[in-house]
């Protein structure tokens, strides 16, 4: 196995992604119309690699220099294949209700309520994956460590983006928790 450029899954590999939705429309004639919709979203886990960055070249690697004018001084060392780990899955339910009323000819005022991530799924869909080579552990033929130590924050959220994205607001900013949006307007 190539320790610096192994084969395997890239970090954005995702096996499954499912969207299932339904809409139900109710027409109350003069009293308006109500549309109700439910959306189920499922995202299977993304993958991550166990990699230590900035590992200095070993004496065996420096001796095997194929003649670089300026050989590298550090490298990324993978512990296992690329994409060996997987974060958590995420699944969310969204609801939307739109009520409109006939006002004058084709003019129809409407109001819409949307509830994203109804059950407030806060699964960790990414987290800290920092590992360091284990000092004094076993090494391979190139002198590279084959064992690692997880960082102190391994498995912990690093930012709000470590949780599933529920929606975007009107300014295009991502939202990451249960979200309620209310809008109104006119159709004509």
List the uncertain runs: none
Radius of gyration from the CA trace? Answer: 26 Å
* SSE-based structural type: mainly beta
Shape: rod-shaped
Total of domains: 1
Number of helical runs?
Answer: 1
Give the N-terminus to C-terminus distance in angstroms: 65 Å
Strand content: 35-45%
Q: How many E-type strands?
A: 13
Name the helix and strand elements from N-terminus to C-terminus, one letter apiece: EEEEHEEEEEEEEE
Residue share in helix: under 10%
Largest sheet report: 5 strands, antiparallel
- Strands side by side in the biggest sheet: 1-2-7-8-13
Mean pLDDT: 92
Protein architecture, described:
With about 190 residues, this protein is mainly β. The chain has one domain (about 15-185). Helix content is about 5%, strand content about 40%. It has one helix spanning about 60-65, and strands spanning about 15-25, 35-45, 45-50, 50-55, 75-80, 85, 90-100, 110-115, 130-135, 150, 165-170, 175, 180-185. The strands form five sheets. Strands 1-2-7-8-13 form a five-stranded antiparallel β-sheet, with no helix packed on it. A two-stranded antiparallel ribbon has the order 3-6. A two-stranded antiparallel sheet has the order 4-5. A hairpin with a 5-residue loop joins strand 11 and strand 12.
């Amino acid at each position: 196995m190539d320790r610096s450029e192994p084969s395997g899954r890239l970090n954005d590999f995702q096996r499954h992604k499912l969207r299932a939705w339904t809409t139900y429309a109710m027409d109350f004639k003069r009293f308006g119309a109500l549309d109700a919709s439910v959306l189920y979203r499922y995202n299977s886990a993304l993958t991550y690699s166990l990699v230590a960055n900035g590992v200095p070249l070993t004496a065996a690697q420096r001796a095997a220099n194929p003649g670089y004018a300026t050989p590298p001084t550090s490298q990324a060392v993978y512990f296992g294949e690329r994409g060996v780990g997987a974060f958590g899955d995420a699944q969310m339910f969204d609801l939307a209700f739109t009520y409109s009323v006939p006002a004058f000819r084709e003019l129809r005022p409407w109001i819409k309520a949307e509830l994203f991530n109804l059950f407030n799924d806060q699964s960790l869909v990414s987290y800290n994956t920092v590992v360091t080579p284990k000092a004094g552990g076993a090494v391979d033929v190139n002198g590279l460590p084959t064992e690692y130590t997880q960082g102190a924050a391994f498995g912990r959220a690093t930012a709000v983006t470590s949780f599933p994205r529920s929606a975007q607001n009107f300014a295009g900013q991502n939202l990451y928790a249960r979200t309620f949006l209310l809008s109104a307007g006119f159709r004509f």
